[in-house]
Records
---
Amino acid sequence: MRPFLLLGTRAEDDAADDEYAGFLRYAGLRESELHRVRVEAAPLPEVDLTAYSGIVLGGSPFNASDEHKGEVQRRVERDLAALVRRVVEADVPFLGACYGIGLLGLACGGTVDRRYGEAPAAVEVSLTEEGRTDPLLAGVPDPFHAIVGHKEACAVLPPGAVLLASSAGCPTQMFRIGRHVYATQFHPELDAESLERRLHIYAGHGYCEPEEVAPIVAQARSVDLGPVRGLLPAFVQRFGRPA
């Protein structure tokens, strides 16, 4: 099988490593099967789209709607937007999680703003009619719980995008463009333990305060996050290609 590519943008090593470990764990991949490029660390080199089974873009402390952006954030946005446009044009298997849904939405003509931000929590997500028949969601029940935590969201879908899932607080939880390009607002790689580690890293940065971490994690532990775990293995199984 050709490897998959994970694009990360987290400058904090512990957060970046935990994200990578989560995608490895829940996608069922070995490190040799999931190459990682940290785009915040250096300019993104030219990506050979034929070298990978698919591309995954993880979450980020960056937001497209940030009023003030540093040089690194502006470069990351340019590099990833250029790659995403190539991915969409070629309909290359792609899964963008959280930051990925905003980047994909903007690159393809959607609207991303702060109307539908969600505080960190495990929320109930419902599938649309199209979501119930999408092959990537074949093993996921309706509804299911997943972990979210984001300041912005895709308020208006890009032209031609298919809405696959929504929640009470955020109308766009998952969409598809073409046949192979997907994005989720929720985090398919997160469990309660990783959520706790991530909240301690980012507490006080607009997501939650340190004293709120324990009750947020307790709430995430109180629901069944098992069903959403089927998404990453389905992506790997569907798009894993011979080397």
Note: The first strand starts at residue 4 and ends at 8.
---
Amino acid sequence: MKKLDNFSNCLSILKNADFKLAETNDIYRTGIIGQFNLSFELAWKALQEIMRLHGVQGSDPGSPREILQLAYKVGFINDSSVWLLMLKKRNTSVHIYNEAEIDEMIMLIRDSFLPAFTDLEKTLQCKLAEAESDWD
């Protein structure tokens, strides 16, 4: 599935980021935050698509917040607080102007958001396989 493939490819780039280099290189820091934003967008869209395949009611229309809340409710994600924080940080990341906020964002991406993305990727791969086996 194209949306899941796009998310996986983008996540792979983020997983390979050198967070040590990000401590001293401003362009690299900006790149990690940009890659996080792209990964988030692709994550919720892949999530929405796979919930549709599973016939989850309410997954057709929806904002990222609605999709994340629905995914938590039906068990596609297991930590809604991390995902809602991710949504908030994605929405405010273009307005980060000071080093302390950038440092916090980089730390959140490394320590909280990357593991959540990785868990989602595994879940979506399993859920896609389930949906495809139902078609056979």
Note: DSSP finds five helices and no strands in the chain.
---
Amino acid sequence: MRKKISRIAFALIMILLMVSCKNTKQKLQEFVTTYNASAANFKADNVTLTTARGYINDNKIELRFETGLELNEANKVKANTDFPALLKDLINKDQNLKELIDEGVEFHAYYLANDNTVLLKEIVNKQTVSDLLK
């Protein structure tokens, strides 16, 4: 009886270990799926929609933040303060995002005007994340 319980416990432990040991590409795919599924609940000033797209072979995730802002100099200046703060908040709240950055995934984040032109682009990776979190 004891042997049987030990074998079952061992099998369960092995299954848990196999499930929890994901590689970076699997984590990247999972992050994109989860991010897009929860995008409807995302709240930030001026952001009307956000989406993520993963590029497995490039080890990159593209984050798009669509806004209701027009493309002009005043909004570009506003984006220079609002967008880094938004990214900092996102990084601090999402442990999976931090793990992916630590594993070498680059995040290309775009803050877009209402006509989908780029107000500001940030690349977040191991080298730039510390500057962003200051």
Note: The two ends are 58 Å apart (CA to CA).
